[in-house]
Amino acid sequence: MKPSPFVSVIIVSRNRAEMLEEAVESVLSQTLLPGEILVVDDGSEDDTRERMEKRSGILYFRQVPSGQVVARNLGLSKSRGEYVAFLDSDDLWKPRFLEETVLALESLPLDGVFSDWTVLNGFERLPSSWKVLWSERGGYPTEVRGWFGIEPQQARRILLKACPAPTSAWVFRRSALPSPAWNERLDWGEDWALQIDLFLRGKGTMGFTMEKLWEKRVGNDNLSLPGGAHRENLHKRIERNLDVLFAELEPLLTKRERRVFQGHYSENDLNSALAALRRETNTSSLSRMALESLCHPFLAAKMVRLFFSRRLSRVLKRALSPKQERLTVRRYQS
């Protein structure tokens, strides 16, 4: 009988003791149990350490606060599995997550696979942001039990458009991961950068399923949620990290691909302008957004497209009618 694959599960956490325990329980409830579970504590000030040290079978590591990217690399360096999965401490896997993903890795075979997910926002259950992959879905050559293998050129187009899926969605073949796996120069988009390194810059093969095998919980400390000064800081943070990614990628891209990637700057600018418009609800912010678009051709093009969309129409309507209740836009970005 063939032995079960050895899977390492790495969970990074900081000051999320209760959610971390729930994440660990979701791993222990898997129909295919991992060979090891590693928890890396990024300098928590709550009772994370006490809770984890009481648990048997958990490999617990603690570091001075250095960020989740450094913590993931530490966990990877301590792990031994043939397959590696990174679960964020605020996310939950459904019981068949590891069984289905590892089976896909072995049967297709592939270097990394991911599944669709459900977003949990309080009591709301929302669909994932999966538009980029659905738009590319036609014509995948390989399908096994609902899993699709993606050709390298298709993977390249997808990765330049957006990060296909966040960290908790993936299981990787260890031998395919770059070294170091996680780019420690980044504090945003590090999951996207890893996927680019493996599947665009490298020769890794990837696949996915539209079955929802895990749940992503979002809350007040989640970067993807909008809000005031936090949103302004996030805009600058995204731009800084895009600069790092683009500098590393530019030599590998065609002229057309560079334009596609530069569109992310435009989207970031547009999101920032829309956030300012929602906050101020007056025509001056609309004027500034129009003026800014003149300096950013990609932003101008996107504004024209979005002008006819329901999303921007609603924002403009609210902005030009101050007496109406302000529009709150929930936006999840991987």
Describe what this molecule looks like in 3D.
Helix 2 links the parallel strand 2 and strand 3. This protein has 334 residues and is an alpha/beta fold. Strands 1, 2, 3, 4, 5, 6, 7, 8, 9, 10 and 11 form an eleven-stranded mixed sheet that branches. The chain is 45% helix and 19% strand. The protein folds into two domains: 211 residues, Spore Coat Polysaccharide Biosynthesis Protein SpsA, Chain A (Alpha-Beta Complex); 92 residues.
Descriptors for this entry?
45% helix, disordered C terminus, Spore Coat Polysaccharide Biosynthesis Protein SpsA, Chain A, alpha/beta, 334 residues, 2 domains, eleven-stranded mixed beta sheet
Topology summary:
Blueprint: E1 7-13, H1 17-28, E2 36-41, H2 48-54, E3 58-62, H3 68-78, E4 83-88, E5 91-93, H4 97-107, E6 112-121, E7 124-127, H5 131-136, E8 142-144, E9 147-150, H6 152-161, E10 170-173, H7 190-201, E11 206-217, H8 228-249, H9 255-280, H10 283-295, H11 297-307, H12 310-319
Helix pairs in contact: 1-2, 6-7, 8-9, 9-10, 9-11, 9-12, 10-11
Tell me the strand percentage band: 15-25%
Given this structure, which CATH class of the largest domain is correct? Answer: Alpha Beta
Structural class: alpha/beta
CATH level-3 fold name of the largest domain: Spore Coat Polysaccharide Biosynthesis Protein SpsA, Chain A
The outline comes out as: globular
Summarize the structure.
With 334 residues, the protein is an alpha/beta fold. It contains 12 helices and 11 strands.
